[in-house]
Amino acid sequence: MELRTPRLRLDALHPADAAALFAYRADPVVARYQGWVPASLAEAAQFIDDLPAEPLPGRWFQWAIRVPEDGRLIGDLGVCLDGRRQATFGISLAPAQQGRGLAQEALQEVLGWLFGAMDVHRVHASVDPRNLASMGLLARLGLRQEALHRQSYWFCGEWADDAVFAMLVSEWRARVANGPVAACTR
Ligand SMILES: CC(C)(COP(=O)(O)OP(=O)(O)OC[C@H]1O[C@@H](n2cnc3c(N)ncnc32)[C@H](O)[C@@H]1OP(=O)(O)O)[C@@H](O)C(=O)NCCC(=O)NCCS
What we know:
By secondary structure, the chain is α+β, with helices and mostly antiparallel strands. Helices cover 28% and strands 32% of the residues. It has an eight-stranded mixed sheet, sandwiched between helices. The longest helix has 14 residues, at 102-115.
């Protein structure tokens, strides 16, 4: 499986990606609000080994986000389908690649894949509201904030809030019809 955008190639993570994955996933800037942070290169390699080769209900499938010219790994985008036409996702970019609109570009493509080829009815994502880059990204993509669960989970030694964002296939179609996708290729 492969997806293309003007500046990115998305495909599967391979064992050879372990060092790059470990480098950015263990970076404190990327790790701050993540549930999984690799403690070692071996743990990053194991993470890749354990991934399913294709999306399966109830399992996280991880898209590799690559520079098309040389195939370099610069981020990853996880999606989890529940088998009942709902999906959740999470995205990480290497710090040097942030602030260029690449996360928006990758997610725009993956949302199209979820609502199209995967026939998903609703996507949702959970984010710590202090994660301003992520909050901004979800809003730019047109997801609606549906809930703010106050102090709903224990994270890194404190109770954390959980903001829930979602989008329906009907909202996606209306958005595509109105042409907002152009915003990520300016
Ligand atoms: C969440 C994350 C992926 C967002 O990455 P990002 O690069 O900020 O997101 P976008 O792709 O939407 O880029 C937006 C920024 O690029 C800028 N930009 C530059 N060129 C752009 C372009 N061509 N198109 C759109 N935006 C562009 C925007 O102005 C914006 O900058 P700003 O935040 O200073 O206003 C990133 O912060 C990250 O990896 N965080 C760590 C992991 C994490 O917490 N993930 C969320 C858990 S679900």
